[in-house]
Amino acid sequence: MKIVLLSGGSGKRLWPLSNDSRSKQFLKVLKDPAGRPESMIQRVWRQLGDAGLQDHAYVATGKSQVEILYGQLGSDVRLIAEPSRRDTFPAIALAATHLYAMEGVSLTETVVVMPVDPYVDGRFFAELAKLERALDASGADLALVGVQPTYPSEKYGYIVPGSGVAGEDGRDGKTAGAHEGGEEPFVTVRGFREKPAKEEAERMIAEGALWNCGVFAFKLDFLINILIAHELPIQHEEMARRYEALPKISFDYEVVEKANRIAAVRYAGDWKDLGTWNTLTEEISEPLTGKGTISAQTRGAHVINELDVPIAVLGLSDVIVAASPDGILVADKALSPMVKDLLKSADQRPMYEERRWGRYRVLDYAVYPDGREVLTKRITIAAGRNLSYQYHSLRDEVWTVMAGSGTFVLNGKISSVAAGDVIRIPKESMHSVRAEQDLEIIEVQSGTLLIEEDIVRLELVWGDIMELCETQEGSI
C-alpha cells in the first residue's frame, strides 16, 4: 500500500497566519505529545510514523510549498511537486505516474489518497488497511473512508450507502448493497450528498449515511488505465511536461462520479476538519499565543499573535484575534469562515515564509520615484542548515549579521561571518551561507524588480557547494 498526502490550499481560510506559501497545514498552533508547537502536517506525519507507514507515504504538493515541507518534515520526505497549480485530478494523476514510472510500483498496488491535515487519533491510520481489503473483497473501482457521524452536520459531505446485497448493481451505476462478511465490513455506495440541511442530514444518518472525509483508495492500474483512455501520458516526465495543459478539474468530477463500483469502510473514531478559525480554536489548548493580554471579562476568546507588539482583548467574547506580518484579523468565531470570501480580491505578497533552512519575515518594502524597489527582510537560518548556492540577476543585496555565526561563500571564496559583519552581494554574484549557530540576518534587497523568482540555484547540499567552490578556485 502506498499513501499520497495532498498538500495544497491557497491560504485564505486561516488568514492572516496562512498565505499562499504557508497554508493552514503548516501553522504551528497545535501541541505534540511533549507539549511542543506542532503543525497539522507534522501531526499527521508523526501519526503515520507511529503506524509504521511513513516509508510508504508521499506528499503531492505545489512548487511554492516544497521549501516549507522540507523544513517541517525533514529532507528525507518524498515529494511529488506539481509544475503549476491545477486541481486534484491532475495532482493525483501526476502522483500515479510518479509511482508507476519513477518508483516502479506494481499496477496491482493499492494507492490511498488523503488530505494532508485531517485531525484524527492515531487509530485512523492503522485502519487504512481496511481500504485495501475492501477493494479486494468488493471488486470496486474505489474504496472510501466514511466517518460515523456524531451529529447532523450541515458543513460536511455525506456518503449514501446502498441497500440490498453486495454485488448487486445499483441503478445509478455506483452499486447498491452492503457486505458484512469477514472481519472488515464495508458498504457499497449509492451516491453522495453535499452539505445537506439539518433535517435531511438527520434522515440520512438514520439510514446509515457517513461523513465523507476525502480519503479513498484505488488499485494503481485503475488510474493508469484512465490516463491511457484519456490519451494522457503515463510516464512521469512527459506528464510533468504537459501538466499546464491539463484541465483544471477535481478528482471527484473526473473519476469518482464516473466510477461504476464504489465501496466504503466505516470509521467510528474522532475526526475533524480544522479548516476555519472556529473549528481550529476548539483544539488550541491555550487562549493566548504570543504577546498579549486577555481580560477576565472576556469569555471564549483566542489570541494568536506572531508580531512583536502586544495585543489586548477587553470584554469581547467568542472572538478570534490573529495577527501576523500579513495582517490582523478580529472576528466573531461563528463568522470566521467568511474570511476567505472577504479577502477574495486581496492580492499581497506573503510577508512571512518558512523554508528548509529556516524562515524570513518582510520588515519593509518601498518603491522610489526612480523606479528602484527596496525590500528589507529579517532572515533566520537554523544551526546546521544552509542557503542554496545561488545568484540573482535583478537585485543587489546587503546583509547585516545580527546574531550567530557561520561560513559564508561568495564567488567560490570561503570566509567566516559573525554578529556585526556587513556583507555586500552584487547581482550575478554566487553566494551561500551555512549557520554554525542560529544566524539572524537583516537583508536589504534593491533593484528594479524584486521577486522571489529572481533566483538561480546552483547547488543545495553544503558538501556539494564546497566541492563546487574547490572547482571554481582551481579554475581561477
From TrEMBL:
<dbReference type="Pfam" id="PF01050">
    <property type="entry name" value="MannoseP_isomer"/>
</dbReference>
<protein>
    <submittedName>
        <fullName>Sugar phosphate nucleotidyltransferase</fullName>
    </submittedName>
</protein>
<feature type="domain" description="Nucleotidyl transferase">
    <location>
        <begin position="3"/>
        <end position="284"/>
    </location>
</feature>
<dbReference type="InterPro" id="IPR011051">
    <property type="entry name" value="RmlC_Cupin_sf"/>
</dbReference>
<dbReference type="GO" id="GO:0005976">
    <property type="term" value="P:polysaccharide metabolic process"/>
</dbReference>
<dbReference type="Pfam" id="PF00483">
    <property type="entry name" value="NTP_transferase"/>
</dbReference>
<dbReference type="InterPro" id="IPR029044">
    <property type="entry name" value="Nucleotide-diphossugar_trans"/>
</dbReference>
<dbReference type="GO" id="GO:0009298">
    <property type="term" value="P:GDP-mannose biosynthetic process"/>
</dbReference>
<dbReference type="InterPro" id="IPR051161">
    <property type="entry name" value="Mannose-6P_isomerase_type2"/>
</dbReference>
<dbReference type="InterPro" id="IPR005835">
    <property type="entry name" value="NTP_transferase_dom"/>
</dbReference>
<feature type="domain" description="Mannose-6-phosphate isomerase type II C-terminal">
    <location>
        <begin position="355"/>
        <end position="459"/>
    </location>
</feature>
<dbReference type="InterPro" id="IPR014710">
    <property type="entry name" value="RmlC-like_jellyroll"/>
</dbReference>
<dbReference type="InterPro" id="IPR001538">
    <property type="entry name" value="Man6P_isomerase-2_C"/>
</dbReference>
<dbReference type="GO" id="GO:0004475">
    <property type="term" value="F:mannose-1-phosphate guanylyltransferase (GTP) activity"/>
</dbReference>
